[in-house]
Amino acid sequence: MQQDSNKKKGKGYRVRPAFARERLNGRTRRVCSILGLAAVVLASAVVVHSLYVIQIRDGAKYRQYAAQQQLLDTTVKATRGEIYDANGITLASTSVVWNIWADPSYSSILYTTSTNDDKTTVRTFDPTMCAEVSQGITLRLLSGDGESLDAVDTSSEEYTQQYQTVYDALSKIDSSYVVLATKVNNAVKLSIEDYVSGFNKAHKKGSGADRIGRVSVSTEKSSQRNYPYGAFAAAVLGFTDGEGVGTYGLEKSYQSTLAGVDGRTITRRNAVGNAIADQNATTFAAKDGSNLVLSLDVNVQEIVERYLTEAVAANNVENRGCAIVMNVKTGAILAMASKPDFDPNMPLDYSANLAYLQEQVAAEPELYTIYLRDENDSKKFKLDENGNKIVDPDPDYTGTYRDILWKNKAITELYYPGSVFKVITSAMGLDSGVATMNTTFTCAGAYGVAKETYHCAGHKAHGTINMADALRQSCNLYYIQLGQRVGSQQFYNYFDAFGFTERTGVDLPSETGLMKYYSANQLGEVQLASSAFGQAMAITPLQMCTAVAAAVNGGYLVTPHVVDKITDTNGNVVEEIGTNIRRQVISESTSDVIRQMMEYEVGNGTGGGKNAYVSGYRIGGKSGTSEQLNMHRRADGDYKKVASFAAVLPADDPEILVYVMLDDPNNARTDYSSILAAPVAGNIISEVAPYLGIATDGEDRSQTTVTVPNLISTEWSNAQVQLNIKGLKHQLMESASDQTAALVTCQYPHAGAKVPYGTTVYLYTDTYDGSLTEVPDVSGKSADFARQMLAAAGLNCVVEGDANGVVQSQSSEVGASVQRGTIVTITCG
After folding, report:
1. What is the CA radius of gyration of the chain?
2. Hey, is 296 helix, strand or coil?
3. In what helix (H) or strand (E) does residue 358 lie, and over which residues does it extend?
4. At the N or C end, where does the chain have fewer CB atoms within 10 A?
5. Cβ contacts of residue 54 below 8 Å, gap of 6+?
6. How many other CB atoms are found less than 10 A from the CB of residue 695?
7. Are strands 729-732 and 760-764 parallel, antiparallel or unpaired?
C-alpha cells in the first residue's frame, strides 16, 4: 500500500488537500459555472444592446452629440438694414461695437491659491490687484478713444460708478463669465486688449514686487442701433431692444426685412473649445438686412415737429398733440409726429418729460390711476367694503410714462373729431343726392331731437344758411338736419366706406383695432344727430386724414404709407410701395364741391379757418373743437376739448394735407381750434409749401406794397400767422433762452414800414435792438444769384431794371453793418 501511495506522488501529479471544507462538490461547481456563464452572457447582452442603442436606434442622436463636441458652430450676424428719408438722409443705422467680458476664475492675478490638509484648494481674493486692473480698464472705458486717459476725471461720479461696476465683476473669482462693459467702440476695445496683453506679459514671470499671474479679459463683437437725430420722428421709427430686435415703430413692422438672415461658420475645435484652423471649414454667409427708404422728408418733419412742440407747450396741451403731412393722392406720409416723444437711442429714459408726464397722469385719473392687485390673483383688484377698487398708495408709473411717450398718437388713440367731420357729412349729403351746396336749413340757436336739445357753439343762431356757409360758420344745427335727411342706413354706409370702421392699413405697428361707432341699427335719432357733427363716433387722427383726403382727391380712399421702397445693400430697389386705392367713396363732382367749400372756409384770410391762410396759396380747411365726453370734466365744469384742423392745398387740385390735433389744450384765452390748431397748420404750410414747390394761386403780387404790422408783445408763432396772411415771410432768430410761447421783443423791418410783398420780417424774443449783418458785394452777379447772396446774409432784396441782367449797383454800401431784414435795392442791366 505504501508503494502505491508513493507512485501517486510521482512526477506529474498534484495532490489536493484532503480536507473536506476546502473541496467543492460537483453540484456547487456546476452552479458556479452556470452563474459565471450567465454573467458573461448578460454582460454581452448589455454591451450588444448598448451598441445597438448607440449605433443603430439612437445613432443619429449620438452622431449629433459627437459632432457638437468636435465641431464649433459660430453664428455670423447679419447687419441690420438702414432707414433713410425720402432724400437719402440716414435716420437709423447700425454700427459695430464691442462687449468687454472677463473670466475671473481664470484670472490668477486676482487671487492667491492655497491647499488644505484634505487636499482641497482655496482661493483668496486679492483686492489690491483687482483695484489695479479695475482702474486700468475703467480709464480706458471712459477715455472715449482709448488714449486720452489723463483727461478722465477720476473724482467724477461717472468714474466711480464705472470703476465699481468693473471691480464688482472681477471680484467674482469663481465665475467664468462676467460683463465689464457693453457697446464699446473699436478704439477703446483695442486699447483694453493692448492693456491686458501688456499687463499679462509683465506678470508672466514676475519681477520685484510683482507676482506671477494673469488676467483674462476678452471682447465679443456686437452691434448698436443709432438714431442720429435723437428724438426725431421717434413714433414712426420706433426702436430696437438690447438684442437688436425691432420692438416699436418701423423697426418692429419691418423687423424681418431689416434684420436679414444670420449666417454660420462650422469648423473643428480643440479640447478646450477653441477653433482649429481648418481649410475644410464650412461658411454660410449672412444675408444682410434690406434698407427702408421712406416717404418721410426730414425737412418737412423738422418743420412739423418744431411747430407742434411749440403749440403743445404754449397751449399747455395736457394729453399730447400730433400732426401729419400726407400726399392726398398717393397716401404717402411726408411727416408724422407725436409730441412730446422720446429719444430712440435711449427709449427707457423719460426724465426729460417727467414733469409733463406727472401732470398728465394726475389730470386723467380715469385713464392712469393704478389700483392694488389681489395677492392671490393678479388679474383681480382689491376692493373696499363698498366694492370699489383701492388706489395703490405707492404706485410705480414707470411703465405708464414710457407707454405714453412711445405711442404714436396718430394711430393708437381714438378721439371725437368734432366739426372737421362736417366735411364728411357734407360729402354724404352731396353724393347721395339729398342736398346740394345751396340747400338751406334754419339755425334758430337750439334744436330738439328726442329728449335732447342741441346748440351751436356760443348758442349762436345762424338763421337760414346754405351748406357752404354752414361749413364756414360750423353750424351744428345745420348738420344735424342734414344728417337726418341722409338717414341712419345711408349715413352708416358712407361712414363705413370712408374707412372709419376699420384700420387704415398704414405700414406701422400698433394701429388700434378698437373702433367706437354705431352700426346702422344703433343709429337712433340722438346718435345720428350727434354723429352728424362729429361728436358721437370716435376715430383715429389718421382715419380722419384719409377720409378728408378721399373727400378732396376725387373721392378715392387710399392706404397711407410711410415706406416708399425697399432696397438691398447695394441700393438696388427690391420692392416699391405704390399707391393703393382701396375704393372710390364719392364721385369726382362731389369732391369738387367739397374742395370749393373748404377753400371758402379759409378764404383769403377771412373765413373761419383764416389763421391757416398763407398768402399766395389756395388753401382749403376745416377746424374742429370737440368735447371729450368719455373723460372727467375740467375744474371749471366744462368738458375737456380736442382742437384740430385739417388743411389741403392747392385747394383746386390738392396735393398735400396738413393735419394738426391738440388733445386737451388748457389755453386760458380760448378753446377754439380756429385759434389753437389753425395757426399751427398755417405756420407749417408757410414753410412746407415753398419747400415742396406747391403751386401758388398764380396772382402776380410783385408790385404789391405791404404795411408791416406791429408784432411787439405778440407770441412769436401768432406773430408769424399775421405775417402769413399779409404775404410777408418770417424768420425767428434763435435765442439762448427758452422761446416757448415767448413774446416778440423786437422786429425788423419795424411796424408801419412799407415793404414789398414777400419781404422777410425778422423776429426776436430776447433783445430790443435786433442784430446786425454785413452787406455783401453783389456787383456783377445775376439778379437771382445776388438775391440768394443777400438772403443768406439776412437781407431783403428789391430788383430794379432788367431782371435778366447783372447787378450794376446796390443801395447799401458793401461791407456796411446793417440790421437784419434791411431792404437792399439792386439795379440790374
Report:
1. 40
2. coil
3. helix 354-363
4. N
5. 62
6. 13
7. parallel
> C-alpha angle with apex 578: 572 to 582, nearest 5 degrees?
155
Among the listed residues 555, 563, 514, the one whose alpha carbon sits nearest the alpha carbon of residue 537:
514
Q: Taking Cα atoms as reference points, which of 313, 339, 335 lies closest to residue 408?
A: 339
651 in Cβ contact with 612 (< 8 Å): no
User: How big is the CA angle at 168 (ends 162 and 169), to the nearest 5 degrees?
Assistant: 90
Q: Does residue 711 sit in helix, strand or coil? A: coil
Coil vs helix vs strand at 26: helix
Q: Which of 131, 103, 83 is nearest to 232 (CA)?
A: 83
Q: How confident is the model over 427-470, as pLDDT tens digits? A: 999 999 999 999 999 999 999 999 899 999 888 999 999 999 99
Of 438, 528, 419, 450, give the one whose Cα is nearest residue 483.
Answer: 528
| 546 SS3 class | helix
Share of the chain above pLDDT 90, in %: 75
| Strand, coil or helix: 625 | strand
* Tally of CA atoms within 13 A in the half-sphere of 405 that contains its CB: 27
Whether 484 contacts 570, CB under 8 Å = no
- Spatial distance between the Cα atoms of 392 and 367, rounded to a whole number of angstroms: 14
Edge to edge, the sheet with strand 263-268 lists 71-76, 263-268, 282-284
Q: What is the identity of the amino acid at 817?
A: S
Cell 442791366 belongs to which residue? 829
Cβ-based neighbour number of residue 391 at 10 Å: 13
What is the rounded distance in angstroms from the CA atom of residue 812 to the CA atom of residue 777?
A: 9
Cβ–Cβ < 8 Å for 118, 197: no
Instruction: Give the Cα separation of 537 and 753 in Å (integer).
Output: 50
How high is the pLDDT of residue 632?
80
Single out the residue of 656, 631, 657, 653 nearest to residue 642, CA to CA.
631
Question: Phi first, then psi: what are they for 683, rounded to 5°?
Answer: -65, -35
> CA 757, CA 799: separation in Å to the nearest integer?
13
Query: Mean pLDDT over residues 557-569, rounded?
Result: 97
Give the whole-angstrom CA distance, residue 374 versus residue 384: 12
- The set of cell numbers assigned to 733 is 432768430
Closest Cα partner for 702 from 616, 782, 761?
A: 616
SS3 content of the chain, % helix, strand, coil (to 5): 35, 25, 40
**Among 517, 530, 523, 531, which Cα is nearest to 454's?**
530
Contact, 485 vs 429, CB < 8 A? yes
Question: Are β-strands 573-576 and 121-125 bridged in parallel, bridged antiparallel, or unpaired?
Answer: unpaired
* CA pair distance 688, 692, nearest whole angstrom: 6
670 phi, psi to nearest 5 deg:
-160, 160
Beta-carbon contacts of residue 581 (< 8 Å; ≥ 6 apart): 556, 557, 558
Residues 84, 274: Cα–Cα separation, whole Å: 40
The one-letter code for the residue type at 445 is: G
Q: Are 210 and 201 in contact (CB under 8 A)?
A: no
Question: Which residues does 273 contact at the CB level (< 8 Å), separation at least 6?
Answer: 72
φ and ψ of 419, to 5 deg: -70, -15
At 393, list the grid cell.
398708495
Measured in residues, the chain has a length of 829
Q: What are phi and psi of 668, to 5 degrees?
A: -65, -20
Give the C-alpha separation, 243 to 222, whole Å: 9
Q: What are phi and psi of 781, to 5 degrees?
A: -90, 155
Annotate 452-517 with DSSP letters as a single string.
EEE--GGG---EEEEHHHHHHHT-HHHHHHHHHHH-HHHHHHHHHHTTTTS----SSTT-----B-
> In terms of DSSP bridges, do strands 463-466 and 556-558 run parallel, antiparallel, or are they unpaired?
unpaired
pLDDT tens by residue, 205-238:
766 556 789 999 999 888 899 999 999 999 999 9
DSSP category for residue 80: P
CA distance 235 to 120: 59
> Which range has the worst mean pLDDT, 362-366, 677-681, 809-813, 824-828?
362-366
